[in-house]
Amino acid sequence: MRGTDPRIVLGLHRSRHERRLLTGALDLGVTALDTSSNYFGFRSHRVLAEIAGDLLPRFTISTKVGYFPGPDGAEHSLDPVRLRKAVERTVKGLGREPDLVFLHNPEHSLGEGAPVRRAVLAEACAALNTAVAEGLCAAWGVASWSPSTLLGLVDATVPRPDVLMTRAGLLVGAGQLDASEGFARAWGMSGSEVWGMSPFGGDSRAPVWGRVDPRVFLRDGDHLSRVQAAFRAAYHLPQVGSVVVGTDEPAHLGDLVGALADEVDERTVQEYRRLLRDRSPGQ
């Protein structure tokens, strides 16, 4: 079943935060930008405002809160007061309200015991829900690297986010794919409300992309590179409406934009999912 048109979100994780990347993205029609309070040494928001304050109104901006500077590097916290202050600092740093604020990897600060963990998650989510109600951001979401650890915590006491972000792509295992889809179902989210991240497992130049040919996942993808095909397939592993991808090269971003017009063969994707499950421990 064909979903909504796929959308690219330019991610700034590990980015050099150069103005030419932002102007290049706009030239390509990429108008969604994703960052985090802890990116670029906790300076991402301020640097973006300094180098491209005039461009930021042309983007929809998502960011994340949950990591804070600590004596030994970054530390994670779900304390509602700290989260609220982090959103306020985001607005000040960017010079505008973000369109979307994610709760960043909440699993990092959830201890043992389902009732206690659920209460902590609910309070953190409520803090971001309140930030939206008070006009500090337009929407909020949850970005989770390991959603399997959050399964079973979602009930009526936990506010529903607007967006869920999780890993996507051919390097994501069967358990992670199933957990991501289960997490989305628990909140009643459609594919258009789910974003994928890290579609290349961290590096589009990794040797694996020279050993496998992801073009088999496309209906007519022979004209694309293997990297382009892997990126296009990521929108279906799991089903997502947007994929956040990082690069410092507008040309690379242009290649990925060029892959969006191709269609994924759903039967091949489902067969691949079955093979993954068959090879997974305990299956």
Please characterize this protein's 3D structure:
With 283 residues, the chain is α/β, with parallel strands linked by helices. It has one domain: NADP-dependent oxidoreductase domain (TIM Barrel, Alpha-Beta Barrel), CATH 3.20.20.100. It is 37% helix and 16% strand. The chain is built from ten helices and ten strands. It has helices at 19-27, 39-42, 44-52, 80-94, 114-133, 174-186, 208-211, 226-233, 250-259, 266-279, and strands spanning 7-11, 32-34, 60-65, 67-70, 73-76, 100-104, 140-143, 163-167, 194-197, 242-246. The strands form two sheets. It has an eight-stranded parallel barrel with strand order 1-2-3-6-7-8-9-10, surrounded by four helices. It has a two-stranded antiparallel ribbon with strand order 4-5. Strand 6, helix 5 and strand 7 form a beta-alpha-beta unit. Helix 8 crosses helix 9 (250-259). The radius of gyration is 19 Å and the shape is globular. The model has no long low-confidence stretch (mean pLDDT 94).
Average pLDDT metric:
94
Give me the oligomer status: single chain
- CATH superfamily caption: NADP-dependent oxidoreductase domain
User: What gross morphology would you assign?
Assistant: globular
Q: List segments where confidence is low: pLDDT < 50 over at least 5 consecutive residues.
A: none
Specify the structural class: alpha/beta
What is the straight-line distance between the termini?
A: 26 Å
CATH structural fold name: TIM Barrel
Element pattern in H and E:
EHEHHEEEHEHEEHEHHEHH
Number of strands: 10
Percentage of residues in DSSP E strands: 15-25%
CATH class: Alpha Beta
Strand order of the largest sheet: 1-2-3-6-7-8-9-10
**How many independent structural domains?**
1
CATH architecture: Alpha-Beta Barrel
Supply Rg. Answer: 19 Å
**Major sheet details:** 8 strands, parallel, barrel
Helical residues, percent: 25-40%
**Count of discrete alpha- or pi-helical segments spanning 4 or more residues:** 10
